Fold:
Amino acid sequence: MIGPTDFYGAQNLEEIINNQRLADAISMMPEDNRNIQHNCSILGSLSEKDIEGKIKAIENSMLGEVVEAWDVQIALDLNRLMNDQVYLDALDERVETFKNSSLNFEISMATNIVQGVEDILFPAIEFVRARYETVIEVLPSVVRSFNHSAKHGDKLFEWNDMLTRLAADPHKFKNKFHFLQGDVSHKAFHYSVVSIYHGDMYLSPFIYENAQIHTDDFKVDNSWLWLPDADIVDYILNKKNEIVNSQIEKSSEKECGSCKYLNICANRMVPMIMDTVFDGRKECILNKDVIGLYDDEVYHGNSY
Structure:
């Protein structure tokens, strides 16, 4: 899945959607995985007419011909969603704009951790499910773009604390909350996310979101280019497997070594993040008690 974030607001959108190399790369992917994931805000700098024009440009572009599904994530202000009719009308209009397109749009909603979100989150989830038949993803918004400071660790622990409070009623939490970390198959085995930054490729670990960490620890070297019959997908997955095995071996004398989720976390490269970005922190950066709620419910405690 390829995912530019500020897709519609990008000044070089025409260049992106008509880039021959990008279109060729997507065509090389399995047909059921030729997706573009991107965000779109409402009541922002772009009018509905602007969005309609950009969608029409995409429909007539190289990308429009090769992409099978467009996974658009609409950023929400939950307070305005539940209390502001003007905001709700704008959201209705944006959803209809995508639905009226000839492209195959899958729409989800997303919100960040902001003050007061806990109090209205569950009613908002119910509202969005009923009105738009989709989900709200609640994002910590601290792991997609790392600045390698201690603040990221602090924010992650704030996120963990919020999860604990939301999960005080386990039945309600498991039935309402869209918690990808609880799905032990998500972004784990036989799978890798890669980000391209200044012409280099980096493996993107998964914490509660995919993390963009552009350091040598996560860099994929380009030696595969000189291999005979090189397959970049195999090379990336082999590189990831080396890292996974190394993490497991190095965890034997740490808390991770006795954790039942070590294999899952290693495939998500969490121990490597703790040894690099969060070097010096002893606590696990994941809320294992909340992960355990899903483990008991779906996997009956057999997540290994």
